[in-house]
Amino acid sequence: MTYTFKLARRLASNHRLASLVLLAALGACGGSSPTGSDSTPPPVTATSGWLTVQLATPNSDDGAVQFAVSGPGVDSIRTVSPYSGHAMVAVSGSGHLVVTGSIASGVVARVWVRDVSKASQVTASVRAAAVRNTYGLQDVSAYRALVVR
Fold first, then answer.
1. What's the sign of the alpha-carbon dihedral 71, 72, 77, 83?
2. How far is residue 46 from each of residues 92, 110, 112, measured CA to CA in Å?
3. What is each CA distance from 133 to 52, 57, 85, 104, 118, in whole angstroms?
4. How many helices (H) and strands (E) does the chain have?
5. In angstroms, what CA-CA distances link 35 with 27, 44, 47, 146?
6. Containing H/E element for 94?
7. Which pLDDT does position 40 carry in this prediction?
């Protein structure tokens, strides 16, 4: 036997051994292993925050507007300056808000939600509106309320 033949045989057996060790290491990196890859994505963490309620009114003499707000994770509602008003949120994630003052189109309130990624599921609607000095009811069919992030 020549030296070259012995060397080739030794290298071939080491190659098989290295292949088996590599295959065993890859097998240990399976999905159930703490070091293996897991196909399950990490859980998405909800981010709480404020959403804005915008009003579009066809009238320039509104003195009070009542809103209904609902959606997942609605926690609290408050008016924004220069308006005042009162709000109530029920346990079920829906609430009511009355905004008072010289009301014009634009931002009238803010809604605190537990997950701002679900902002598209939070809705607001105008239930009633009153004239500023006489408190006569307005027709609310042309009013629009929109919740934006």
1. negative
2. 18, 19, 13
3. 27, 17, 16, 15, 38
4. 1, 8
5. 11, 21, 29, 47
6. strand 94-103
7. 77
